[in-house]
Amino acid sequence: MRSELKKLLKLLGCYLPVARFRRRLFQLVGYEIHDEVYIAQGLIVVDSLRASEVRLRIDKMVTIAPRVTIILDSGHNFQYNERSPKFGDVVIESGAFIGAHAVIFPGVRIGRGAVVGAGAVVTKDVENDITVVGVPAKPLRRNRKDIVEKAE
What we know:
By secondary structure, the protein is an alpha/beta fold. The protein has three helices and 14 strands. The strands form three sheets. It has a six-stranded mixed β-sheet with strand order 2-5-8-11-13-14. It has a four-stranded parallel β-sheet with strand order 1-4-7-10, covered by helices on one side. Strands 3-6-9-12 form a four-stranded parallel β-sheet. The chain is globular and about 40 Å long. It starts with a helix and ends with a helix.
């Protein structure tokens, strides 16, 4: 997909007022998003336009609150920074909830039924049925499994 078209679809997907249209535009960009996913306005997916091998997968019954940022590629400017960029797949499994203004770093897996608190910065994998909060995100408590089982 041409980079200009990808940029336009991501921008429209971020701000369209109808959730199912937002989800569909992100699917057209190439992200694997199940049809039973709710994405609130303001989802930002940061990826390199050249890194087509990096994937975003969001399974069914996932809710993403407003202004969440998912980073697939850190995209450093090599001219000013000698560090190599960090990139990797992000997987959000069934029944997960991502709170408003959360940031998810490259290479992270959010487990089944996990809850990411508002404003959390997720730098490591989140186990199934766990609530994480804070900067960086740390486990707060184990979630009730019966809630997750309803989502399946």
